[in-house]
Each structure stands twice: as structure tokens, then as C-alpha cells.
Amino acid sequence: MRRGAKPGKTKVEPKLPVARKSLKSEGSRVRQLQKRLAEALKREAEAQEQQRATSEILRVISSSPMDVQPVFEAIVASAGRLCNGTTAAVFLVHDGTLYHPANYGGSPEALAAARARYPRPLGVDTGPGIAILTRSVHEVRDVEDSSTAEHIRAVGRVLGFRSVITVPMLREGEAIGAIAVTRREPGPFSEGDMALLQTFADQAVIAVENVRLFTELQEKNRALTAAHAQVTEALEQQTATAEILRVISGSPTDVQPVFVAVLASAARLCDALDATMFRVDGNVLRLVAHEGPIPSDPVGTSRPLTPATPSARAVLEGRTIQVADIQADGGEYPEGSAFARALNFRTVLCVPLMREGVALGTITIRRTEVRPFTDRQTELLRPSPTRP
């Protein structure tokens, strides 16, 4: 029998237990899923917080159409909190000057010290200045770097930050301001931080534009109201003139109805409670007409032509005299003050009736409250060369 070679031994690879390998893989997948879930929940929470901040700022914008300051304060508070910043600030530029209306995050003393550096000329010595002039994001990863502008480094030491990012506020391509956020530690800001700050910058622009448009609208409304008032006043004057002319034509031999019509129009157009007319009669002023509820002497009563009353002084000096509170007069018009206290009237306007430089009499209008007559009302009452 032939002897043959012995058969070789087959190498057997060791095998891991199936159950142990499966459990290890499953645990790794669970941990990855948990990590992804936590990251997703964190992103969702951040997104909701950002949305709430944006909604709050929009609410402030809608409730402050004439004041942008509350909007700026809401923006810096949200920007500092959501970007994990040490401080946050808003800057505005106008006519080449940089202003600092709002900041947030530091001590009151530090924030006041930072604001005290403004207003200042717009330039490249500040982060906001660079962002505004270049209309682009400006980031300083370490303010202690030798290339950092001295102003930025100084502000960083005052507020205690090492890194800062500044986003311009753009309106139709033009920079009207900037928003900045700082951090205590050096390093870059994320793209998410930049995007969030851009959102806040856009909202700040909306607020500024709203105030501008609202202000313009109010100015236009005031101009329209003033124009309407002037037209109304002109129509009232024309109506009063037409009524006086009608009375004149209807009373060709009796001037008394004309005097009454003139006084009634004067009181109505000047918002006075009553009106009286005196004429010069030698050394006295004689009452020729009265219209209104304040008691008065009977028509025909005379008063001495002395400076003791505003009416007499207006005639003697040939000029308009107004006394805001005749009852509080310090002795300049003793008889007038006594008369005012007896009849309970306060503000008096006396206009002399002039012809060729000579006072023929006076028209006096009165109010029971202290409310001086306006220049417009005075001009309306005063005769002119073009108005008889």
C-alpha cells in the first residue's frame, strides 16, 4: 500500500456571535438617531425663537409708527440674545454723521460710555462705518489683532468683547445704518448668525421707512388741513363782507344796523364772546354798538379818553393793544381791570379805527377765559388800505 501525503488542515476564521454584532450596530444607529433628533429639535427651537422675536419686532413696528426707538431697542435685545452676543447695537447715518441710538447687553455705565463716542463723522475707523461705506458685512474675529482700528479696539475694551460682526441696513441699495453684535471670545460668526442679523437689519429699515413715510403723510395732512382752513376762513370773510354790504344797502340812512353787523362778524370770525365799538367824541369815547352776551354799558355811554383802559389807549397811541388777562393787570389799566373784574372777562383785543393817520374810534373784542387772540385774528380785525 502506497503512502500518500497527509491532507492539509483547513483554517477556520473565528466568527463573532451574531447577536452581539447585531446589538452593537443597533446601538450605534440609535445613538446617531438620537443625536440627529436632538439637533433637529434644537434647530426647531431656535427657529421658533427667531420667529417669535421677528413677530415681536413687527408688533413693535406697527405700534410705534412715529417713534423708531422702541423698535431699535427690541432689535438689539433680540439680536444679542439669539446670536449669543455680549452686546448688540444699532447705528444710523445722516448727512455723513454716524449716530448710536441703541445698544444692549453690557452694564449701564459701559453702554453709556460706548454711546458717548457718538455722534461722530462717518469713516473707516469704526465697524459700522466700514459696513455702511462698503455696504457689506464687516467682521472682526479678534479686536486685539494689530490690524484692528484703534476705535474698535478701544470700544472692545470698554464693553469687554473680542469679536464683532456688523451688518449694514440697506434701503434700495443705500446704507442708512448698521447692526452689530459682539462676543467675549475671539472667533468667527456663523452663516446663520449673519442671516439672522440681516433679518433684523431689514426690519430696522422697515421701521425707519415707516416713520419717514408716516411723518411725510402727517406733514401733507397738516398742509391740506391748513389750506382747507384758509379756504374756509376766506369764504367766511367773504360771506361776512357780503352780509355787511347787504345791511349797508338795506339801511342807507341808518348806520346802527351796519355797526351791529360788523361787530357780529368780528366776534364770530375771531372766536370772541362779544365785540364793542367806540367812537371818539371830543375828550371821551362813546359806545356806539355792542354785540354779545357779556354785559355792557348802554349805547351812547361815554368814557374818559385816558390811558386807564385798553380801548382808550389804542385810540390815543393809534396802535392795536391786546391784554392776555386784564383782571391780572398790574396797574397799567386800573379802570379797565376794575371793569373786567365786575363783568368777568379776561382777554381783550382793541384795534383802532384809523383814517389818514387819525384814530376815529376802536373795535374791542373780549373773551371770558385767558386765551390770547392769534396774529391772524388780529390782522383780520385790523383795517388795511385795501380793506375798508
Helices and strands, with pairings:
Layout: H1 18-63, H2 69-82, E1 87-94, E2 97-104, H3 108-115, E3 120-121, H4 127-134, E4 138-140, H5 150-159, E5 163-171, E6 174-183, H6 191-250, H7 256-269, E7 274-281, E8 284-291, E9 302-304, H8 310-317, E10 321-323, H9 334-343, E11 347-355, E12 358-367, H10 375-381
Antiparallel strand pairs: 1-2, 1-6, 2-3, 4-5, 5-6, 7-8, 7-12, 8-9, 10-11, 11-12
Overall description:
The protein has two domains: 45-214, Beta-Lactamase, CATH 3.30.450.40; 254-381, GAF domain (Beta-Lactamase, 2-Layer Sandwich). The longest helix has 60 residues, at 191-250. By secondary structure, the protein is of the alpha+beta class. It is built from ten helices and twelve strands. Strand 1 (87-94) and strand 2 (97-104) form a beta hairpin. Helix 1 (18-63) packs antiparallel against helix 2. It has a six-stranded antiparallel β-sheet, with helices on both faces. Strands 9-8-7-12-11-10 form a six-stranded antiparallel β-sheet. Residues 384-388 have low confidence and may be disordered. The protein has helices spanning 18-63, 69-82, 108-115, 127-134, 150-159, 191-250, 256-269, 310-317, 334-343, 375-381, and strands spanning 87-94, 97-104, 120-121, 138-140, 163-171, 174-183, 274-281, 284-291, 302-304, 321-323, 347-355, 358-367.
